[in-house]
Specification:
Order of helices and strands: HEEHEEE
Strand order of the largest sheet: 3-4-5
Number of domains: 2
Radius of gyration: 17 Å
Structural class: alpha+beta
Strand content: 5-15%
Number of strands: 5
Mean pLDDT: 83
Distance between the termini: 33 Å
Length: 100
C-alpha cells in the first residue's frame, strides 16, 4: 500500500466510531476530508511550528512532498516517546538519534 496516493485514491481514510463521536464533529470531519480530497485544504499549510517553537512553515505556505519526506522534526503539540526499532533492536530518542 502506498500512502502517497492519499485520500482521493481511497488508499488513506479517516476512521472513527460514530457511536462515540458527536454528530456535529462527524460533520466537521467529513467536510475536512472532502476538502482534502478536492485539494481545497492542505493539512500541512503554515504557519506550522515545531515542538521547540521554531517556525517551520510561513503563513499560507504549503509544505512540499520532498520536505515531508525529509522532516526531522515534529509538529507542535505532538508528544513523542522514546521508541525501539524492532527489526534492528535500536533505541532512539524523540529527535531520532540512536541511543545505547
Amino acid at each position: 500500500m502506498n500512502f502517497w496516493w492519499g485520500m482521493a485514491s481511497g488508499g488513506v481514510d479517516i476512521y472513527y466510531n460514530r457511536k462515540h463521536v458527536p454528530t456535529e464533529t462527524q460533520k466537521l470531519v467529513e467536510l475536512i476530508k472532502k476538502m482534502i480530497v478536492e485539494g481545497t485544504h492542505h493539512p500541512f499549510t503554515g504557519p506550522i511550528y515545531d515542538t521547540e517553537g521554531t517556525l517551520r512553515l510561513e503563513k499560507d505556505e504549503i509544505i512540499t512532498t520532498e520536505d515531508i519526506l525529509e522532516m526531522d522534526w515534529y509538529v507542535d503539540n505532538v508528544e513523542v516517546e522514546e521508541y525501539q526499532m524492532r527489526e534492528f533492536g535500536e533505541r532512539r530518542t524523540e529527535n531520532g538519534e540512536r541511543k545505547n
